[in-house]
Amino acid sequence: MTAIAPPLAEGELVTGTRLGQLLSDVWVLTKRSLARIRREPETLSEVTIQPVMFVLMFAYVFGGAIGIGGKGNYHEYLIGGMIGMGLAQTAPGTAVAVVSDMSTGLIDRFRSLPMSRAAVLMARSLADMLTQIIGTSVTAAVGLAIGWRIHGTALQAIEALALALLFGYAFTWAGICLGMVLRSPEAAQQTGFVIFLPLTFISSAFVPTQSMPGWLQPIAEWNPLSSLAAACRGLFGNPNPAASVDAWPAQHAVAAVICWSVGLIVVFAPLAIHLYRSKNR
User: Fold this and answer.
1) Which of 43, 183, 235, 267 is deepest in the core (most CB within 10 A)?
2) How far is CA 112 from the centre of its chain?
3) Residue 247 region, left (φ>0) first, then alpha (ψ -120 to 50), else beta?
4) Residues 6+ apart with CB under 8 A from 105
5) Residue 260: band (very low, low, confident or very high) from pLDDT cuts 50, 70, 90
6) pTM to 2 decimal places
7) 175, 91 in Cβ contact below 8 A?
8) Please, which residues have CB within 8 angstroms of residue 228's CB and are 6 or more apart in sequence?
């Protein structure tokens, strides 16, 4: 049986053996989340079925009515934004999973074990990142099937995917915080929809920000999803109308994604752990 670390005191630094025990706890709980996915594969529908539906719908239903300027191919324009949307949309699922664990008493059982309080949430974030990798792979595969191609180098493509996963990991912590403050899976699902759907559509994920009303353009240009979409398109060598936008996030998309991701992790990861400890006192 895997040894589980005793609880960390408030403010205690994790060093040496304690760090090894924390990592062991995280690994055990991550395997528990993955084992649940094997037993209930339908939980992966949001990162397998939904990406296929959205890519095909936007490519073949809306794509003909959306202009991106110049001679760009909308199918190639679409995938960069679709990757960002897929990653952002996993946050409500994270919130639902956290609320479910809290409401079913699973967290109470974890409390009875001599384990790190931070390990539970860290394991959740890592398990969700693995599902995000699946979702990104599905989106890329469907994109290739409809004509999307990478015109940049292999190193640039890897950089784009790494940026996307960093961004998705940061959003996972936002979802964990949301799950900590809500009381039911239904409330988490509805709140996530209200928050993340406008975030997705008021961005350059599906249409260039230049086509939006003037008052809405600055909001869309500073939307982190716009930065991620522009960064991916630039690195993939796909059509990127944001390159002509005179706004700092559009002109420095890669740096903007890194700043947004680090900022989200710095804010939401400690907050999530604090909320978890407060709820379990």
Assistant:
1) 235
2) 31
3) beta
4) none
5) very high
6) 0.85
7) yes
8) 80, 83, 84, 87, 163, 164, 167, 253, 257, 260
